[in-house]
Design a protein that fits this description.
This protein is α/β, with parallel strands linked by helices. It contains three helices and eight strands, in the order H-E-H-E-E-E-H-E-E-E-E. It has a six-stranded mixed beta sheet with strand order 3-2-1-4-5-6. The longest helix has 18 residues. The structure holds inosinic acid (IMP) and magnesium ion.
Length: about 180
């Protein structure tokens, strides 16, 4: 399976939007104790570009989540990498590649609140509202997209295509609900 040649969101458009998000975040987090939590692996480029455009100081940490579908309990989200920074009293900004069903973000946000964060907000590059199955609110959204499988700029298909500088639609024909 391959990405379509023509980007769905090109590198220049990504740069402009990421800078806009960074400006909004900088305004909101002035005088706060900002901890940017990059969700691996998909948010690597997004978080990196966002951080470099911020106009406020930030501490960076990482989490990695994996979701398993098709189990008896439905979809289970496991935290493979947990933050090493103490979250108590911090203003945590979760930076994710994409909000699809919302299962990963919902689990993560709940975990972070339980760790005693002062505030937890969510920043996603891409949002697929038509796929939402869990109640999650994204505070900052780069692009709202239709239901297509996106790769590039950190997003993968079976670990491939993260290195592409733009977002491309994967050429899969109609997509199924199981991923
Ligand atoms: P959710 O838990 O269903 O919201 O989706 C969580 C994860 O599924 C995301 O963090 C991505 O890793 C992956 N995912 C969902 N949609 C896409 C896509 O269009 N392209 C690449 N990965 C995706
Ligand atoms: Mg993935």
């Amino acid at each position: 399976m391959k990405p379509l040649d023509h980007p769905a969101i090109d590198a220049g458009t990504l740069r402009i939007r990421v800078n806009e998000l960074a400006r909004a975040i900088s305004r909101d987090y002035e005088e706060r104790d900002l901890l940017v939590l990059c969700v691996l692996k998909g948010a690597l480029h997004f978080a990196s570009d966002l951080l470099r455009a911020l106009e406020v100081p930030a501490i960076v940490d990482f989490v990695r989540a994996k979701s398993y579908s098709g189990t008896a309990a439905g979809t289970v989200v496991e935290l493979l990498v947990k933050p090493t920074e103490s979250l108590a009293g911090r203003d945590v900004l979760v930076v994710e590649d994409i909000l699809d069903t919302g299962g990963t973000a919902a689990t993560l946000m709940e975990y972070l609140s339980q760790q005693g964060a002062a505030s937890v907000r969510l920043c996603v590059l891409l949002d697929k509202p038509s796929r939402r199955a869990h109640e999650v609110h994204a505070d900052y959204v780069g692009f709202s997209i239709e239901d297509y499988f996106a790769v590039g700029y950190g997003l993968d298909y079976n670990e491939q295509f993260r290195e592409l500088p733009a977002i491309h639609r994967l050429d899969v024909g109609p997509i199924d609900g199981n991923r």
